[in-house]
Write a structure and sequence with these properties.
about 210 residues, Rossmann fold, 2 domains, five-stranded parallel beta sheet
Length: about 210
């Protein structure tokens, strides 16, 4: 591998990497239970308990677990769009994100490679989307989790070899192990600082790019 100029694309996970989980948490654990409580005439605590039990029955290895439309339909709650729009104030970016994107965007093509559905991404990325050339959702675009095949699809769509992409994200398997399996460069982001060898902030990414 050569030096800096051979990396063409820097790819970012969304939630936990660029955007805090506040918005999504509010949808899953506040908005949906509130709508359920209103729809079925139970108190919020009861609704929340019922909803969480239903989440567990499906489990996070099935695509339905991530599909907000599936849950709104399952519970008879109508359309998720107005509910999600009402929680947009919960969207929050990590402090360094905009400055890092502005700086890296001068040299690289920036993309998002997320496991979140587009129903979430349209809200989550609203304040930073102009920085990105493309936004990929594994669930909405390919109906799969962030598998190695997802990253291969991104390479094909962007017309580059895996070695020309750097991906960074907060899930060790989905954002570090899997992109590396297809030949991408990858960095794990652990904002808690608890993982040896991981980035603790996106500020640390640029110096790492120089060494590739």
């Amino acid at each position: 591998m050569g030096k800096l100029d051979q990396i063409k694309i820097v790819s970012f996970d969304a939630e936990g990497t660029l955007v805090t989980t506040d918005f999504s948490y509010s949808i899953w654990y506040e908005a949906i239970p509130e709508k359920y409580a209103e729809r079925y005439g139970v108190d919020f605590a009861t609704a929340k308990s019922i909803i969480e039990e239903e989440y567990k029955k499906v489990g996070d290895q099935r695509l339905e677990w991530y599909d907000v439309r599936y849950w709104f339909n399952r519970f008879g709650l109508g359309s998720p769009e107005p509910v999600m729009a009402g929680y947009r104030h919960k969207v929050s970016y990590y402090p360094e994100v905009k400055s890092v994107l502005a700086e890296l965007g001068q040299r690289y093509i920036l993309i998002v490679a997320s496991g979140s559905m587009r129903e979430f991404l349209c809200h989550l990325l609203e304040g930073i989307e102009p920085y990105f050339s493309r936004v990929f959702s594994s669930l909405s675009d390919y109906r799969r989790l962030k598998t190695p095949e997802f990253y291969q699809e991104i390479c094909r769509a962007m017309g580059v070899s895996p070695e020309q992409i750097v991906h960074v994200g907060d899930n060790r398997e989905f954002d570090f192990v899997f992109p590396q399996k297809v030949g991408m460069h990858a960095f794990h982001l652990d904002r808690s600082g608890g993982s040896d060898g991981s980035l603790t902030s996106l500020v640390e990414l640029k110096p790492m790019l120089v060494d590739l």
